[in-house]
Task: structure prediction
Amino acid sequence: MNKLKTCMVIVSLWLSGVAHSESEYAPSIGPPELGVLMSLKQRLWFDAAKAEHLGEWKEVLSITDRWQTMRPGDVELWVYRARALGALQHHKEAEASYKRVLEQYPNEDFIYLALAELAEQQGNTTAACRHAATAIGIHPGYADALSFHERVCNAPEGQGTDAGDSK
Result:
């Protein structure tokens, strides 16, 4: 499991109550001299995860705005931001945030699946299927991507719409 997915799993464990503190399952990140900065980053990270878990999308955007001023290159920031923007129906901005993650990590299968889901929400089956196929190409056993592809891309004729091709 790569570092980005590991971070997302840790947050899920913490929110579900399996991990009872931020540090219980969190790996050590960075050298000790970055401790203060990492602590602040971890605090913003957990605040964003909590707000996301509660569906407080505007709060997620507020947190990511603060985070962006400190560490604009953090991919976790762009994942949270993309999810919040998508939930708030700001599809183009969400897509741009996901693509920013792919600039640093071009083989993130779950980001391609997120782009597929975003394209489907916009009625763009062609782009949705292309992104799902990319996720499957990166990770052939990715069950969520396989399920999405089966449901959306292999749907019987007349099901699903295609509102154009967004890249």
Notes: Residues 13-37, 160-167 have pLDDT under 50 and may be disordered. Residues 25 and 68 are 25 Å apart (CA to CA).
